[in-house]
Structures are given as structure tokens and as C-alpha cells.
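Deliverable D2.4 — example input (C-alpha cells):
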């Protein structure tokens, strides 16, 4: 949104504590008032209509064909949610995932003991296993989605940082499954279920 000099602490508070760095419970000192002018970059986000149009374009192709003008959708939700094996945590949402999307759970690129990013080699295996090659699948923007448009940014950041890929190659569908999976009153958008268990 136009903020400069932004960074992410790899591992978050857990890693900070593990490194025995100082902690404080004091409220932060009040900063002097400043003027911030947000610079909204619409190219970084995908709307419902844009995602639907991309999926419609892909539906005209054979499933394994590549259309460089459409790009790939990476869903960062857990695999059981992606596969439609469990209900969504938000009431009223359908099970499943966006057609033609692949699954890279946000926490699969993090070390479960430290919360830090895995090595580039380990993450490459995870992305490749999902059907995404960081060096080949960048002919068009890669769109990231999840439940509400937040955890989608974790695998996005991993790709941008470890492969030195410009953020211009990525976009976030911030409506995410909360929007796509909940449109049942006016229009229901297509979804896929790849559950390995029978759903009744």
C-alpha cells in the first residue's frame, strides 16, 4: 500500500524468544503524528471477476494444457480443506477449491519447530510436488488464494524472497475462499472436490 522499508521477521516472536533477545511488556512510545498517503496498487490484487475470467479461459482448454495468459492459482489453505475433506471454519462456505488451482499450504514452507522458512531446496521440493516450478511458471502472474487472503502471502513471500522474484509476478485474490465458496444466494461459482473420503 505504498509503505517503504517493510520487512518480515523470519520465525516471528517464536524465533526471537529462541534467540534470547530482549522482550518488553511496556507500551511503545507514542510517535509524533505523520502523514501517510497509501498508494493502492490494483495490479497486486485479483478481483472475483478477474479470477472467474481466468478460470473460464482455462476451462476451454484440456486440463493439462498451459495458457501463459492466464497463470496459475496457488491455494495456501490446509490440504484437508483444499481437498474438501473437512468443513470450512467459517459457517456457510462450501467445501473444495477453485478449479485449476494447486495446493501449497502456508505452513508447509515453514519449519514446524522454529516457524522459520525452510531451506530453498526443501521449498523447491514442496512447490514442485504441487505442480509449480518457480523458474518455469512465471509467464503470467501467479495468483495466491487462501481462506481470507492473509495466509496466501506466506508462500508468496517465500517465492519472492528465496528466488528473488519481483512482486510484480504475483497477485493475491484477497476475496479468497470466503468470497468464492460463499456465493450461494446470487451465484455459485464452480468448485472442485478431490477428497479421498466419501462426503455425505
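Example output (designed residues):
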Amino acid at each position: 500500500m505504498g509503505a517503504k522499508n517493510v520487512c518480515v521477521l523470519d520465525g516471528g516472536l517464536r524465533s526471537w524468544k529462541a534467540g534470547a533477545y530482549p522482550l518488553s511488556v511496556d507500551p511503545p512510545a507514542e510517535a509524533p503524528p505523520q502523514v501517510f498517503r497509501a498508494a493502492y496498487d490494483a495490479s497486486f490484487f485479483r478481483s472475483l471477476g478477474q479470477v472467474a475470467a481466468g478460470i473460464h479461459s482455462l476451462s476451454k482448454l484440456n486440463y493439462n494444457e498451459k495458457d501463459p495468459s492466464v497463470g496459475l492459482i496457488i491455494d495456501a489453505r490446509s490440504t484437508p480443506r483444499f481437498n474438501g475433506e473437512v468443513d470450512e471454519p467459517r459457517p456457510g462456505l462450501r467445501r473444495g477449491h477453485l478449479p485449476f488451482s494447486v495446493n501449497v499450504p502456508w505452513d508447509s514452507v515453514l519449519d514446524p519447530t522454529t516457524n522459520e522458512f525452510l531451506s530453498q531446496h526443501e521449498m523447491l521440493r514442496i512447490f514442485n510436488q504441487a505442480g509449480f516450478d518457480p523458474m518455469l511458471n512465471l509467464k503470467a502472474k501467479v495468483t495466491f488464494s487462501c481462506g481470507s487472503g492473509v495466509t496466501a502471502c506466506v508462500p508468496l513471500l517465500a517465492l519472492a524472497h528465496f528466488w528473488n522474484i519481483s512482486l510484480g509476478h504475483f497477485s493475491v485474490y484477497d476475496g479468497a475462499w470466503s468470497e468464492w465458496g460463499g456465493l450461494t444466494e446470487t451465484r455459485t461459482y464452480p468448485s472442485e472436490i478431490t477428497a479421498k473420503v466419501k462426503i455425505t
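The CA atoms of residues 40 and 184 lie 30 Å apart.
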